[in-house]
Amino acid sequence: MLAATNLEVVYDDVMLVLRGVSLEVPQGRIVALLGANGAGKSTLLRAISGLLDMHGGEVSRGAITLDGEPIHHLDPSRIAALGIKQVMEGRRIFTELTVEENLRVGGHVKPRSLKVNLDRTYQLFPVLADRRRKIAGYLSGGEQQMLAIGRALMSDPRYLLMDEPSLGLAPMVVQQIRDVIVDINAAGTTVLLVEQNAAMALAIAEHGYVLENGAMVMDKPAADLLADGDVREFYLGLGAEGASRSFRDVKHYRRRKRWLS
């Protein structure tokens, strides 16, 4: 199990971004993490991946553990070697390399499994196989996101941390990404999914968390979060009867979130 316990993260020795955050990601599950912009979701993923230092952050209290062993003191390469990989927000592909070169970069951790993992990635994303020799910078936004996910999968991770994989994508592509996440999980990879598309995330997750202002404010099975009135209004834009609410109504609701009052 991957877990964070009473985690506090500080940036530049001054700014407290995460405040006593606890989260559990059991092996084999999809866990969703919801929250507005600036809530601290990406910071939590960086803390797990060991990437805080390059952003001026550090774990000041609490622990991150994998199978009961602390990992928050390890460097990113060691954490990756333990089977934790992150798909960052914004894709972060190598735009001047070809599709296959990008994938091979992701496979350097397990060179002996390179061909097997490459074939598996092409099976998940046939469009990448068709474009394997194309320069990655010329791919569409959806194809670049598929490439970013595929590159992370090239190391055959135990845990895949996904930061806003549907951001800025067309609805049809979002559906494709959703289906791939389900397939990845069915093949044995555990997924921690950070998403503002709450409906998509909670539809495929078994458990969900809501992070607001650096603190966990909800921790429930995904089905219970989908049925929760506050979550439906704030994250799904739905009223009590399930009808869509206007932007004005939702904006007003965001100023009076009941769980923070």
TrEMBL record:
Record-linked PANTHER family: ABC TRANSPORTER SUBSTRATE-BINDING PROTEIN, HIGH-AFFINITY BRANCHED-CHAIN AMINO ACID TRANSPORT ATP-BINDING PROTEIN LIVF
Species, as recorded: Kribbella orskensis
CDD domains: ABC_TM1139_LivF_branched
GO molecular function: ATP binding
Family that this chain belongs to: Belongs to the ABC transporter superfamily.
ABC transporter domain span: 2-238
SMART domains: AAA
UniProt KW keywords: Amino-acid transport, ATP-binding, Nucleotide-binding, Transport
Domain of life: Bacteria
Name by which UniProt lists this protein: Branched-chain amino acid transport system ATP-binding protein
A Pfam family this chain is assigned to: ABC_tran
